[in-house]
Amino acid sequence: MGRGTGGRELALTIHGAVVGLLLLGGVTLIAFGVVDVITARDSVVDLKYTGSSRWNGLLKLGVAAIIVGSVLAAVAVFGCLAVGRGGCSTVFFILFITLQVVLVALLVAVALLAITLATRDAPDGVRTFLSDSWKESVADAEYAVVVCGLEVEFSCRGFYNGQCHGCATADLVSNACTREQRRWCPRCDKQRPAEDFSAKGCFQDTYNDARKYFKPIGIVASVLSAIVVLDMLVVCCV
Q1: pTM (two decimals)
Q2: Which of 57-71, 73-87, 126-140, 207-221 has the lowest mean pLDDT?
Q3: Where exactly are the transmembrane stretches of this chain (predicted)?
């Protein structure tokens, strides 16, 4: 009897800690996501895009944070209700387990996607999305500044290798660039001398810079999914 009571108390303690962690994480993610969306800085690639690629949504950290944070918070709330109302025999428990399953599936999907993007070359869909974003940004003076900043930061020119070879801003002004080059090569107020630019395009460096977000996201999502699975087992003992 004593051991049974002690085991239940331990399970409740573990469950309470997990619920608190999930609630804190959920609220934090929601706040982070809302701020990012409001400030329009919710994408890992700060370029203009008006198309319909699914990668435009998948790479928006602010939106993803709000979705995952909301599910985390909901699981935490229902976790409190499930245990508080009698545990395994209540409707709240069923809803709680359902939400946990959804959360685990979501976290596993996020982890797999993030780790894949962090460890492998860019999928064709990502490459197309980024190239379309680059072209749209070059054509928009507001976003062309961002493109120019990337070129200066990575000592590159254009999106793909060789696209803008021999087409610096001075060449654009003097109409020495081809029509195709004008689609990929921005006019920049500040630009390194042409000899400082190799024929290297900016795609790989831009993608590598974005990848720095993916590995930690994948690790955190993996750890959270394991914690939620552990809590599912613990709750059944309450």
Answers
A1: 0.69
A2: 73-87
A3: 12-38, 58-84, 91-115, 217-237
